[in-house]
Amino acid sequence: MAMTSMEEFEALLNESFEMDTPTEGSVVKGKVIAIEAGQAIIDVGYKMEGRVELKEFANPGEAPEIAVGDEVEVYLRAAENARGEAVISREMARREEAWDRLEKAYADEQRVDGAIFGRVKGGFTVDLGGAVAFLPGSQVDVRPVRDAGPLMGLKQPFQILKMDRRRGNIVVSRRAILEESRAEQRAEVIGKLAEGDAVEGVVKNITEYGAFVDLGGVDGLLHVTDMAWRRVNHPSEILSIGETVKVQVIKINKDTHRISLGMKQLQEDPWDLVAAKYPLESVHKGRVTNITDYGAFVELEPGVEGLVHVSEMSWTKKNVHPGKIVSTSQEVDVMVLEIDAGKRRVSLGLKQTMRNPWEVFSETHPEGTQVEGEVKNITEFGLFIGLPGEIDGMVHLSDLSWDERGEDAIQNYRKGDMVSAVVSEVDVEKERISLSIKALGGDKFAEATGGVKRGSIVTVEVTAIEDGGIEVEYEGMKSFIRRSDLSRDRAEQRPERFSVGDKVDVRVTNVDSKTRRLGLSIKAREIAEEKEAVEQYGSSDSGASLGDILGAALKGGDE
């Protein structure tokens, strides 16, 4: 019995020792009994005291709050050191306490307070009330932060992204909090906005395609095409960062929270008055704003632009790039050709403000007028001659010479030669001018054969004797009489009976103005004379011979 009592007493004694003597490596309660030299002296029981630096009692971004008599929890690292004091740490106690708190917050997806206190590779260190967490650089703010100085030591909320107590790792984000608050703020601002509202905002950022305007916590995009009715090449032409502008809410996307804004919608649409201000065929001054391969855009007034198609730019310059006819910012006169109010398009003409050069030429150079110009081009069918008004006239091969074939005559000309010609035809509609070089001296054939008709008897001079016939000349025009046409009598059809210089009467059998040839025949003249004599003096059938008849005719002529 006594034995049992001793065992019980020993167990009770050990239990009291365990209760009164804290275990090393655990969090214990203590009482602040003094504050001196920047340290708090804490009684942790069982006649053990320890010291803790006051800064360990400070919350992130705040001053330490500690006073004598305060009860605090500390971490007992060792029961006794060389000075006989307990080795305690408030920071380590806070860490254990913090991990418990943070694990609960992480599980509940709640925010935690902390302060950024240091910079490390790839980010920053954050004190979460005793536990140290890593804040990646990408998680500091919504936009990249160049200087994190103002954020240091500042108490603020963070979101725990992941944590591992065994490894002592915690990763937090400040950006997630900002995005969440921005989303709440955006939802609140967007909830107050309606499409069509006119609001004020501040230009926050300018890009190639537009500007972002802050409407008080939410950004809207003001596209470059909605800034003004006129053409805006770059938003910086009319806006600057920090400027306050009045805009209209054009569209709100409730799902993406995107807001489209417009400035021109608050101004009068110049297109409402276009039809009245710019009647068809009226001429106006405009400024070239843009040049493309297919034409040039001309601004008639801010917000009203028309297109001069390449085909309406010049009477004479065909297949030329518009940039070679006009230049950007040039002032030009244009004519209104067509208006499509629905498509907001105006078709303009540049050449219509100038007279048609073919029309002018036809008025100033009627057919038969002599002109002079430079050979601009030589083709297989003729010459192109430069004429007044930057237009060309064409001399066809057949109009080069009376005497030479066109293919031979064209060999006498070179590009750049100055030549004279006569206007033979002007076709304004087809923009074509026909010229003739051979007509310069007049039409010698027409002049020579003016009174000559088929059946006429003319006198010619023999100029050459050939085997096939004789060459003769009439008024400077050469012709050839074939052997078979030299006489009615076959025996007399010998070219050699004629001599150069002989004068011979011949009958005209054909006048060909196209080939510029006279058809001549001695035989035809003789037959015609015989026929005439027979008609006058009787028929050969009456017994009279041809010689008798001709003799009588000749005798009658002598009387």
UniProtKB/TrEMBL annotation:
State the Gene Ontology terms under molecular function: mRNA binding; structural constituent of ribosome
Give the source's domain of life in one word: Bacteria
CC annotations in GO: cytosolic small ribosomal subunit
One Gene Ontology term of the biological-process aspect is: translation
Answer whether the UniProt record assigns the keyword Repeat to this protein: yes
Keyword terms of this UniProt record: Repeat, Ribonucleoprotein, Ribosomal protein, RNA-binding
| Domain S1 motif residues, every copy | 25-91, 109-175, 196-264, 281-351, 368-438, 455-523
Name the family. Answer: Belongs to the bacterial ribosomal protein bS1 family.
**Primary role:** Binds mRNA; thus facilitating recognition of the initiation point. It is needed to translate mRNA with a short Shine-Dalgarno (SD) purine-rich sequence.
Q: What is this protein called?
A: 30S ribosomal protein S1
